[in-house]
Amino acid sequence: MPRFAANLTLLFTEVDFLDRFERARRAGFDAVEFQFPYAWPAAEIRARLDAHGLQAVLHNLPAGDWQRGDRGIAALPGRAAEFRAGVARAIDYAAVLGVPRLNCLAGCAPDGAGAATLRRTLVANLRFAAEALRRAGIDLLVEPINRFDVPGFFVDRTQQALDLLDEVGADNAFVQYDVYHAQRSEGELATTLQRHLARIGHVQIADNPGRHEPGTGEIAYGFLFAHLDRIGYGGWVGCEYLPATTTEAGLGWLQRARVGQPLAEPAVPEPALAAAAGPAAQVSPR
């Protein structure tokens, strides 16, 4: 059975961020991940990890001004200095937290920007980041994100991310494979995971529609978890989903997965189903 890490940006939001570490340990998680830790001092996060015996396995590079619509800046012309400063800040946090991999969000194509210019900018920034992270002993990840949730996101398919990494040419750069985003963008989950296993540095999960917990939608997660074992995936699986009700109420899937039982489909409240049928932008893209 894969090793699961609780994403503390989306799970246990019933309590403040620093209190979510205790909730994750109480729920049986050995590891956690989060999107952006920068609103809290790294030392405070480290103290929570130590207090509850948790390992931090992933966070993102700074992604620009989220409140004003940025979803990453790595592909955006004219923001290289900001990107490089963000890389340094992320490395500082990773050093304190013991995080072995950092995820880079490419960002959304601005109006009037040509694809060739965006690609050149992204490749140059990824090369810089990969080298800086290599010196720190950290892996770099690039994550495709579906364009239903995030219109205009520059990297939305696995092959596109692989092609970019081929051009970057860094041996510490990998794909972050989010099953939810992949299902929405391209499908072929099992085949893609097996074919590109050596180049996938981290896996994240959520069901579709709605981005809720496994067992609430169309993805055959019981099969997929067994498949990850069969093909030899040894990394962490980040639980980056939006609980349909409360986090604890929706964790039955995890208990069943750990004992090899089929993942039943918990009831999803009607409002959640209605929201899933509406604009995907209602869902947090990361």
Describe how the helices and strands are arranged.
Blueprint: E1 3-7, H1 20-26, E2 31-33, H2 42-52, E3 55-60, H3 80-97, E4 101-104, H4 115-135, E5 139-142, H5 158-168, E6 173-178, H6 179-185, H7 189-195, E7 200-205, H8 221-231, E8 236-239, H9 252-258, H10 270-277
Parallel strand pairs: 1-2, 1-8, 2-3, 3-4, 4-5, 5-6, 6-7, 7-8
Q: How would you describe this protein?
A:
- With 286 residues, the protein is an alpha/beta fold.
- The protein has one domain: Alpha-Beta Barrel (TIM Barrel).
- The protein has 10 helices and 8 strands.
- Strands 1-2-3-4-5-6-7-8 form an 8-stranded parallel beta barrel, surrounded by 5 helices.
- Strand 5, helix 5 and strand 6 form a beta-alpha-beta unit.
- The protein is globular.
- The chain starts with a strand and ends in a 9-residue tail after the last helix.
- The relative contact order is 0.13.
- The C terminus is likely disordered.
